[in-house]
């Protein structure tokens, strides 16, 4: 029923391989798509070929046509025609109890294994997506914390430059504000009480300033400052703006 389709997360649509059943399959799929349009949530659906008689050429053609048209939506398992299935239905008994080991029982057992395997695969993929999302979230939080703690931080009097440089013995800063001179008195950064963290407060007025760090004699852009621009030497200068 429509209510059942609306409440379902996943639907298996059984179809025997006669003409009218295949025609009805198209109408069922259109109904599922209509539910998705109205509710914004389309149930996942798979198609199960049933009542398959390997002796009938028309059924072989119908099965091939289904595979060509619906591809991944058609389940690999095919329920073959089997008298035991009809008798079990007439007796109101599941095939596993009515005729265990029969061909009908084997086919439905294969179907159950395929559905369970598919569910496990979907669960694994969903778990992988959740882990990837969580990893991206943590990375973003770390980046935001790094930007808040390190880099060029605008203060009331100018800019506080904070650099995390593990193992460094000397850290300097050169830029527009000290004529790019590492020997300038404003170039030396001071090692703080926090391990590997260097700091320099520079009094600056409003404007846009380019700068680079010099870590043990090696010039580099500020890794904690995402704002950069190219310089005439083909390298990147970090940039900070003071309003």
UniProtKB/TrEMBL annotation:
Gene3D superfamilies for this protein: Immunoglobulins, P-loop containing nucleotide triphosphate hydrolases
Start and end residues of each AMP-activated protein kinase glycogen-binding domain: 166-243
CDD domains on file: E_set_Isoamylase_like_N
UniProt cross-references to PANTHER family, sorted A to Z: COBYRINIC ACID AC-DIAMIDE SYNTHASE (PTHR13696:SF99), P-LOOP CONTAINING NUCLEOSIDE TRIPHOSPHATE HYDROLASE (PTHR13696)
Identification of the protein by name: AMP-activated protein kinase glycogen-binding domain-containing protein
Stored InterPro entries: AMPK1_CBM, DNA_Partitioning_ATPase, Ig-like_fold, Ig_E-set, P-loop_NTPase
């Amino acid at each position: 029923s429509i209510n059942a389709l609306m409440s379902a997360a996943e639907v298996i649509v059984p179809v025997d391989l006669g003409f009218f059943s295949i025609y009805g399959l198209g109408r069922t799929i259109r109904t599922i798509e209509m539910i998705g349009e109205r509710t914004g949530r389309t149930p996942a659906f798979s198609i199960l070929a049933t009542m398959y008689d390997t002796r009938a050429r028309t059924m072989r053609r119908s099965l091939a046509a289904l595979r060509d048209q619906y591809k991944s939506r058609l389940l690999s398992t095919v329920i073959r025609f089997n008298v035991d299935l009809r008798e079990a239905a007439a007796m109101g008994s599941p095939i596993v109890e009515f005729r265990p080991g029969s061909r009908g029982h084997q086919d439905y057992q294969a179907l159950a294994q395929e559905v369970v395997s598919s569910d496990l695969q979907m669960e694994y993929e969903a778990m992988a997506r959740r882990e990837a999302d969580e990893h991206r979230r943590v990375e973003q939080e770390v980046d935001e914390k790094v930007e808040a703690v390190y880099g060029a931080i605008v203060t009331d009097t100018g800019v506080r430059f904070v650099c995390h440089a593990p193992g460094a013995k000397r850290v300097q800063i050169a830029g527009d504000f000290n004529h790019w001179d590492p020997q300038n008195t404003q170039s030396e950064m001071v090692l703080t009480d926090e391990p590997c963290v260097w700091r320099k407060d520079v009094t600056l007025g409003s404007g846009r300033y380019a700068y680079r760090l010099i870590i043990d004699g090696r010039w580099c852009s500020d890794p904690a400052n995402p704002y950069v621009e190219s310089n005439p030497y083909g390298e990147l200068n970090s940039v900070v703006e003071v309003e």
